[in-house]
User: Fold these one by one.
Assistant:
Number 1:
Amino acid sequence: MKRVAVLDDDDRTALRERFGERARFDETLAPLTWWKIGGPADALVEVQNSDELAAVLQRVFKRRLPMFVLGSGSNLLVGDGGIRGIVVRLEGDFAALKVRADDDGVLIDAGGSASLPALCAQAASLGADGVDGLAGIPATVGGAVRMNAGTDREIGEFVRSVSVQTPARPDPHPIAVGWQYRQSSMPGDAIVAGVTMRFPFGDPATIRERLQARLVRRKATQPVAIPNSGSCFRNPDGDRAGRLIEAAGAKGWREGGAEVSGVHANFIVNTGSASARDVATLLARVRRAVAERFGVELQLEVHLVGEFSEAAPCRV
Ligand SMILES: Cc1cc2nc3c(=O)[nH]c(=O)nc-3n(C[C@H](O)[C@H](O)[C@H](O)COP(=O)(O)OP(=O)(O)OC[C@H]3O[C@@H](n4cnc5c(N)ncnc54)[C@H](O)[C@@H]3O)c2cc1C
C-alpha cells in the first residue's frame, strides 16, 4: 500500500528539536496496542507535561495536521497502513495519580495517562465503593474517560471534572462531559489531560474482596493470555453481543491469524500473525452472520484507526 506522509521537513525538524528521542518517525504502532497489530505512525511523540502537549497541539492547529492520542492501546485496531500525522502519547506528569480520603469519601486526581488498574487498587484499599466495577480494565484514565469504560458501573458515574487540551485551545481547561454506554460526549480532538473523581466510602475489606473476585472471574471467562482488545462489539439493548455471536456459530472462526475466541465469543484473538485486515475481515463476517441470523446490527466497541488496505467494516 502506498503511504503518503502528511508531515513536511519543517514539521519533522521542529519535533526533533523540541522532543529529541521522544519524537520518532515511521514508528510501528503494533507493540503499543493490546492486539499487537498496526502499521507505522508518521510521527510518534511522547509528551511529558501540558506545555509540551500544548506545543504539539499548536503545530497541529497551525498546519491542520491529523492527530491521534494513544492510551494503553487496549481498545484499538490500528490499520496495517498505520496512522498519518502525529500520534501523541502522554507520559511524565500525565501519569500522576493521587488517591486520598476526606470526610465525604475517596477523592482522586489522575493525569490522562494514569493507570486505571493502579487507581482501582489504591482506591479500593481506602474503601472506594463502586471502584470494583472498573477492575481489570487495562486502560489509561484518559482512554477510560473517552470510552466511558466500565462493567455494571461506568467511570463517568464517578468523574467530577475533566480537564482537556485541544488544537484550538491548547492550554488545559475544564470541559463538561456527557456519558453514554461506552462513549462520552467529548469532541474527537479533545485530549484528556487530567480528571478528578469521587467515590463514596464503603468497607475497605469488602471492596478489596469484590475487586479481587472480579479479577479472578475475568481470568476464567476471558482469553487473557492471547493478544486481544476486549469486547469487539457493544452489547445491543437487552442482549449480549457475545451470546449472539456464539449463537450465530461464529466461535472459532478464523481469518489469517485472527480468531473468534473460544473462551469469549465477543473477543477476537491474535494467534500470532494476524494483520489488521484479518481482524477487520473477521469483524465484518461476524457482524453479517449476526445480522442474517437475528436481524441485529452489532455496533463496534473497538475503535478502528488509520489506514486499512480494504474498506473497514465500520469506523468510529
Ligand atoms: C483484556 C481486556 C479487557 C477489557 N475489558 C473492558 C471492560 O470490562 N469494560 C470496558 O469498558 N472496556 C474494556 N476493555 C477495553 C478498553 O480497555 C477500554 O475501552 C479502555 O477505556 C481503553 O483505554 P486505553 O487507554 O487503552 O485507550 P486506547 O485503546 O489507547 O484508545 C481508545 C480511544 O480513547 C482515546 N484516548 C486514549 N487516551 C485518551 C486521552 N488521554 N484523551 C482523549 N482520548 C483518549 C483514543 O484516541 C481512542 O479513540 C478491555 C480491553 C481488554 C484488552
Number 2:
Amino acid sequence: MKIIAIYVYEKTLSMASAYNMSSSTVGDASSTIIELHTDSEHIGYGEICPTGPLPQPEHAGSIRADLELLAPALIGLDPVLIGQVLAAMNSTMDGGIGAKSAIDIACWDLLGKATGRRVCDLLGGPFTDPVSTYHVIAIGTPDESASSAEHLQNDGHTKLQLKAGGRRIEDDIDAARAVAAVIRPGVDLFVDANRGFSVEQAIQFSHACAGLRLNMEQPCHTYEECAAAKPSLVHPLLLDESAKDLATVAKAISSGVANGFGMKLTRVGGLSGMRAIRDLCIATNTPTSFDDSWGGDIIASACVHIGSTMPPALSRGAWISHPYHQCHYDETNGPRIEGGRVAIPSGGPGLGLVIPTGYFGTPLASHN
Ligand SMILES: [Mg+2]
C-alpha cells in the first residue's frame, strides 16, 4: 500500500451550548480534516481541532501550514509502516506535533482498513464497550454548577469535571462546595482550572475544600508551578496542559508531581504517542483520560478506540466534544454519549466510520 494523495479540509463545528474555561470561551471551532488516499483505494482519516489560539500553542492556521511541509514527504510511503511514516515526518520538520498526530491517526485508520481490524483491536483490544466518558460543568454560579451536576448524574454520568479559574478564588471554592454536596457515591469529581490558579490560589483552594472528595486538574500555568504547589495540596493532582510529552509524563510520575493525567492525543503524537503513555500509566498504576481539545467524529473515534483499551480501574474516560456541537460526519456510527458512555464506532474496520464521499467539500490543499 502506498500513499498517492493527501487532501486537507476545513470543517466548522458550530457551538450548541456554552463552554467556558479559565482562559477563554470556546466559540465555533475550525477543525482540520486529513484524507490519506492510497493505491489500494482505501482512505484514512485524521483530524485535529484546537479550541482556538489560547488554550494550546497550536491553532488551525499553524497546523495547516505544518501540513504544507509534511504532506509532500508522505507521498509514496506505505502508511501501514507507521514508525517509518513518523520518522519521515520528523526528518522533514521539528515541532508540528498536532499535524503529525493527525497524520498518525489517519495511518492507524488505514492499518485497520488494510487488515480488516478495528483500531482498538490493533491497540491491544478493548476492555469496555461502551467506554466511560466524563462531562464538563462550565464555569457558573454555585447553584448553576450544582444543578448541572444533578442533571448529568441523572443522565448516568459517573465522571464530572468542574471548570474553575479566571475569577475570584472564593467563587470557585463556593462552586466546588456546591457541586461536591450533590455528588453521589461512585461518582468522581475533577476540578479543572486549566492553568488559571496561582500557586497560592491552588493551595488556598485545596485547603478550603479539604473535606471534599475531588481531584485537582492542572491548577497552575506551568509544570514547575504545579510541582511547587503539590506538597501543600490535600487532593490528588492531575496534569493536563503541562503533560506535553512522554518524557514529561515519566518525570511527573517518578517525581510524584502527578497522580494522574488528562491527555490529549494530538498533543502527544496521535494514537502512537498516546499508546506509549497508556502503557507507561498501566505500568505505574496511574490513571489517565483519553481526550482531545475539540473536533468531530474522527478525533472522537480515535479517543474512544484507545480509551477502550485502558483497564477500567485506571481509566478517567474518553472525552468527546459532541455534546457541545451537533455535527456528525457519520450520522450512523459517529460517537455519541448515551448514559454517560460512548460506544466504539462499529461502521467497519479502522476507526469504524463511514463518511460519505465528498462530505467535506472542496479541499483547502491537495498533494499528490
Ligand atoms: Mg483539562
Number 3:
Amino acid sequence: MQKQTANKIKKEVYWRCKKCGDEIYWNTHKSMTYCKCGALGVDGCEFYLRLIGNEADREEIKRQKKI
Ligand SMILES: [Zn+2]
C-alpha cells in the first residue's frame, strides 16, 4: 500500500481509460477532463488529484521523463 501525497507528484503520470484507451495527464489545471467515452474523469493540479469513475476501468501510467 503506497500513499502518495499530492504535493509529491512530480512524475509524468497519466490515467488511461481501459474502455476507450484515452489517456489523460494527471495535471488538468483544476478543470475536470473526461476521456472519450466518459467513463474516466480526472481533475488535478499540484495540490490535489480527483478521479471520477470506476477504479476497474482505469489504470495508472507512469512515464519517466529524461532531461
Ligand atoms: Zn473512456
Number 4:
Amino acid sequence: MSSSFKKIIPFAKPSIGTDEEDAVLRVLRSGWLTTGRETLAFEKEFQEFVSSKHALAVTSGTAGLHLALEASGVEADQFVITTPYTFAATAEIIRYMHAHPLFVDILPDSYNIDPELVAKAVRENKHHVAAIIPVHIAGNICDMKSLCEITAEKNIHIIEDCAHAFPVKYNGKYAGTLGQIGVYSFYANKTITTGEGGMIATDNTEYTQRMKVMRTHGIDREAWDRYSAQNKWYYEIIEPGFKYNLSDIASAIGRVQLTRANDFLEKRRHIANIYIRELSGLDFLHIPAYTDDHAWHLFMIRIQPEYCTLSRNVFIEKLSENGIGTSVHYTPLHIMPYYKNKYGYKPDDFPVSLANSQACISLPIYPDLDEEDLMYIIQTVKKIGQAHRPVHTAVPGSAATSPKPEK
Ligand SMILES: Cc1ncc(COP(=O)(O)O)c(C=O)c1O
C-alpha cells in the first residue's frame, strides 16, 4: 500500500440533497424558525410512519431519553437496568434523575443486553428496578420478546434507546414501539438526521402530555400556541422543565429524511451484505450475521487476537494510514472514570462488554458509500489482517511468512 495514497473515506457521512436544502430555505423564508408548523407536521408524519399514537420532536436523543425517564416516574435512588455497552447518553440521563444505572452485561455476538442476566437482576430484586433501557446496538434489535416478558409481571417500564435503530421492524412492529416509550436520535451520523435532533414515540397519552410540558420549560402551552393567534399570550409554569423543543429548520430537514428512510435502509442492507460476503471465512475477524431485524447503522467487526498480531488500536491506525475512517463502539461505561469511581466497578464485572470493546472496530457504512470505496475498505482490511498473522497460522508465501528480501 503506497504511503502517498490520498483517498479519504470518512467513517460517516450524512446523505443530504437538494430537497433538504429547499426545505430549509422554505423555513428560513417563512418568518417562523422555532417549533411550529414544520415540527407538528414532522411529528405527525413520524408517528404515522412507526404507527405510534404520539410522537414528540426533541433537540436530541439524549433529551428524549431524559423526558421519557422523567415521564415514566422514575424517582431518586431507584434503579434502571441498562447495558454498559452504550454511549454516554443512555446512562447519564438516569443520573439526571438522581437514580442509579444497574448495568447488565451483553451477549457476545449481538452486543445487546443479555435477557437472562436481566431476568436474574430483576429476580434477585436487591434494588428497586423502576425501568429498563435496552439499547439496540448498531441497529440490531434486542430480544424484546424476553425483555417484555420479564418486565411485564413486575410492572417495569421499557424505554427503548433506538438511537441506532430506525427504521427497523421486529415481529412486524417498529423498534421504538415495542416497549412503553421509544427514543430515536437524529444526530449527524444516524440513519436519518436533522444535524442534531431526536424523536419520542409512545402510545401513552398521559406520558405524552407530561413530556410535552417538560420539553418546554414546564410551561403549559408552547410558543406556537401562544403567538400564532391573538390574545393567547398568557401561560403558566407548572414544573421546572427543560428546553428540549426542536426547531422548524431541523424538522424541515427531518421531514425530507423521513421520506428517504426506507431507501437509506436498503442501501445500508446492501452494503452490509457485501461486507459479510467478502469478509466471511477470515479467521482473524468476527463479523455480524445478516438479519433483516437490523438497521445497519453500524457495521461492527472484531479482531480475533489469536489470529492477528496487531492490537485493535494498531489495526485502526493502519486503516487510518490508508485513508479509512473508523470508530469504536464502545468503551464500556463501567470502566469510564465517573462510573468506576461512583459505583466501584472493576473491569471484569462485565467481562463480555470488556472483551468485545477491546477488539471491536466499526467500519464505514452509509447510503452514499460507493461500491469502489467499499471494495477498497474490504481489500485493505484483508491485506492488513493477512499480513499480520501469527507465524503458526500464516498462509505460506504471505508477508508474515516470507523471508525478508535480500539487499
Ligand atoms: C446508543 C445511543 N444512545 C443515545 C444517543 C444520544 O443521541 P443524541 O446524540 O441525539 O443525543 C446516542 C448518540 O450517539 C447513542 O449512540
